[in-house]
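Please predict the structure of the following assembly.
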Amino acid sequence: MTTEIIAIGNELLIGDVLDTNTHWLCRRVTGLGGVISRVTLIGDDREVIAGVLQDALAREARVIVTTGGLGPTADDLTLSAVARALGLPLVESERALQMVQTTYTQLAAAGLVAHDTLTEERRKMAILPAGALPLFNPVGAAPGVVMRHGASTIICLPGVPEEMKGIFETSLPTLLAELYGEAYYAERVAQLDCGDESMLAPIVDCLAIAHPSVYVKSRAKAYGPDVRLKVTLSARGPNQSQVDGWLDAALHDLCAGLRAAGISIISLL
Amino acid sequence: MTTEIIAIGNELLIGDVLDTNTHWLCRRVTGLGGVISRVTLIGDDREVIAGVLQDALAREARVIVTTGGLGPTADDLTLSAVARALGLPLVESERALQMVQTTYTQLAAAGLVAHDTLTEERRKMAILPAGALPLFNPVGAAPGVVMRHGASTIICLPGVPEEMKGIFETSLPTLLAELYGEAYYAERVAQLDCGDESMLAPIVDCLAIAHPSVYVKSRAKAYGPDVRLKVTLSARGPNQSQVDGWLDAALHDLCAGLRAAGISIISLL
């Protein structure tokens, strides 16, 4: 049930743009029962994009989400790279072209673009790998794309965060929840009055061994007088009651371990 | 001269933490004349970390920077994974142990930790792949690590942003500037009174062809009445005068292209 993200764009690698898309997708996919196993950030290079996609397919990722590179300019190469990686031709999709036309007609009517003619640059956004389905973009012009390849589902979203989220929320939650099955994910976060992670380490390590279904993580901020450590317990399972049972048992043992070490819990979420 | 980043931590993949380290490193490395070619985010899994590192070495990355997984808990696996990937034993470094001791003595004196004894968890932070050098951590306890492997330099930094930046600024700018040579990087950013990227696409495409030394990128935000497109011209070369010459020539042609299309520049950085 692993999911990989491929974030595409030279602007990410030169540090011009902070990639907030990946963080948003990680949260959203995890909440829908998926497991993000890897994220790769690469530049606008067709060969590199195609290679990373092939590597993800070779790892049998169930879902592969790309962000970026769907726009009208020549360096928007994602769909051409997907086609190359899968050995598919690029064809103009009638449905995608209708979506692009509808968007520009609305933008022109609102005076936001000069005209609604489908220029070559605008038509480019409707050229998809053969067999791919376009996904409606409620915010911008470039449709998203979804396609199957063997047991993998490949989803291509634009890099503009509002467009990425708009397409995701419009078309993907049901599809992904179905792919991920009935998985349920939950977590508990305890804030501690302790700034020394080395003191917490043996408690966390024992807890992880005693509760293999629960992922236990302590997090250090910088040292200092106002520093508080955080312990996160998280679990994924077939249903809520099982997951809550695991988490409550682990939390019980965490509290006992902390009490023995003289550490108290400040807050519990 | 390529540099790869490997950001390590389950908290990144479940979307608990936004990875700001990568963005900071991308900016900083680019400013020092390096080229970030790929970033990979993965979880706390020794085999996966070792595999990604081996892949980066196989791509002959000149510099590989890892973030995360250097702390005292059992799921801090980065150095053990590096040792496995390179076929090296893990050994306690006397210099690293002195650094860890100094930190805890200062923290204990300031009342921030209960005692300065080097417990097993604290000693763990001084166990490095054989031949690795520890890097002083001015903010926290875990030293950074630098080591050579063939033509590659591997740098391991903690995941806590303040510690990562503190080690980087203390020990790495000179080392990296030397590795990257005399490369100079600069950019020009033009903000336009145009919200339609498809109108800009032919201008950008022509510019990229006419100025192969300059990387030309237009960026779309969401469509709307207040939207402005941005065009970034960036270049890297042996010295400032050459790079500035390339950028000024490209900027001249960009202005001409925009004028012909009736698009004006709002601001230029």
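The longest helix of chain B spans residues 240-261. Chain B touches chain A through 74 residues (CB under 8 Å).
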